[in-house]
Amino acid sequence: MPERGDHDIGTINSILDEALICHVGFVTEDGYPVVIPTIHARNGNTLYLHGSPASRMLRSLKGGAEVCVTVTIVDGLVLARSVFHHSMNYRSVVVFGRPREVNDQEEKLRALEAVTEHVAHGRWTDARRPNESELKGTTVLAVDLDEASAKMRSGPPGDDDEDYELPVWAGIVPVATTYGAPVDDPRLRRGIEPPGYATDYQR
Amino acid sequence: MPERGDHDIGTINSILDEALICHVGFVTEDGYPVVIPTIHARNGNTLYLHGSPASRMLRSLKGGAEVCVTVTIVDGLVLARSVFHHSMNYRSVVVFGRPREVNDQEEKLRALEAVTEHVAHGRWTDARRPNESELKGTTVLAVDLDEASAKMRSGPPGDDDEDYELPVWAGIVPVATTYGAPVDDPRLRRGIEPPGYATDYQR
Fold it and tell me: Could you give the CA distance from residue B54 to residue A50 in angstroms, rounded to a whole number?
């Protein structure tokens, strides 16, 4: 079977780093599931999430609630001869944990650096860094990666033996995330060119 | 503020239809949140999910548990002059509901048609349709779209007034999902060409 779980830490880390965003799941006080998209970043064995102190997600989670953070990279559509065997090629990571709020100013800055660099490598050096009131106005949570696992599928469709004779095209449509030419802010000061990490964006 | 909620049904439907996959959140029996990526499809005011009867997600949900289904399309990286105002341009939909299991054979077939057509428009006509044992081997859940809402951000960064003077490039790096040239299954019968929905894939 091409679909399988994989707990190799190198695989897990590379998927977390390549994925631009994650989906964060938590349970509300009255027991409802909520799933919110947000940006994550990894530093060693720690996954960082951040946001406004007013965010319901961060308020729920900094109270010590359990979290499930899932990232998914879609690599292809798997078009089999039978509807039943259609599938996706993908790489995903699921992280379970109980976040802790990051209050140490130095760790908080390092976490925001990791998030900024996760979005665009080199941006932390260029952009104005958070001042004291912005730091206060940002909640940062850390989730341990001890309970992380990866799952993925790759390769061609797997059809039933008798279906290989059908006159139906089968194969993969590759899927990728692509990054276009940077668009200047209309209020950009004259003479400032976009940096290399924006003109030649890579993950 | 460019970020806002939007409950217009046309907007919600177009985001659900464009997004290839969703992230499904549910709460386990012992109270833990779980978030799993999967393919969804919309038919009118109903969102369909499907999978193996052995899947933990489907077993939890068909028992009547609450679900949160979130889809997210990332449109751009918003690089502001300050780290604090970095953001993403995106369109997302969050659906809350209590799924019902689809047992009616006709609705089940229509749901699987919707899922197949969601992945590749035209595929239901070409591929071998589910037989009786495959239908039995597929669980289909329906979620009402009555409790769906959209949220999105677009446009340039919004920096603090005093930061517009900084010598820092600011703007958008556009993000898109792209679909490559189809790759034939190595076991494809000779003389079968990929269909138009694969060579010229569009969502």
Answer: 35
Chain B CB contacts of A170 below 8 Å = 184-185, 187-188
Query: Would you state the structure tokens that stand for residue B155, as one six-digit string?
Result: 């446009």
The residue with tokens 């919309």 is B42
Select from B116, B138, B175 the Cβ nearest to the Cβ of A177: B175
Q: Which of B84, B132, B133, B187 to mutate to test the interface with A (most CBs of A within 10 A)?
A: B84
Provide φ and ψ at B87, rounded to 5°. -160, -170
In a 10 Å sphere around its CB, with 0-12 CB exposed, 13-18 middle and 19+ buried, how is residue B39 labelled?
Answer: buried
* Residue B70 phi, psi dihedral angles, 5° rounding: -120, 130
Residues in chain B closer than 8 A to A185 (CB atoms): 156-157, 170-172
Per-residue pLDDT of chain B (203 residues; tens, 9 = 90+): 445 566 789 999 999 999 999 999 999 989 999 999 999 999 999 999 999 998 888 888 888 899 999 999 999 999 999 999 999 999 999 999 999 999 999 999 999 999 999 999 999 999 999 999 999 999 999 999 999 999 999 999 999 999 999 999 999 999 999 999 999 999 999 999 999 999 999 99
Which domains, and CATH codes, for chain A? 4-198 (2.30.110.10)
Asked whether the beta carbons of residue B27 and residue A35 sit closer than 8 angstroms, the reply is: no
The span from the CA of B131 to the CA of A83, in Å, is 10
Instruction: Give whole-number Cα distances, A86 to A11, A77, A158, B47, in Å.
Output: 25, 8, 9, 19
Which 3-state string (H, E, C) describes A135-197? HHCCEEEEEEHHHEEEEEECCCCCCCHHHHHCCCCCEEEEEEEEECCCEECCCCCCCCCCCHH
**Considering only CB atoms, which chain A residues are within 8 Å of B176?**
177-180
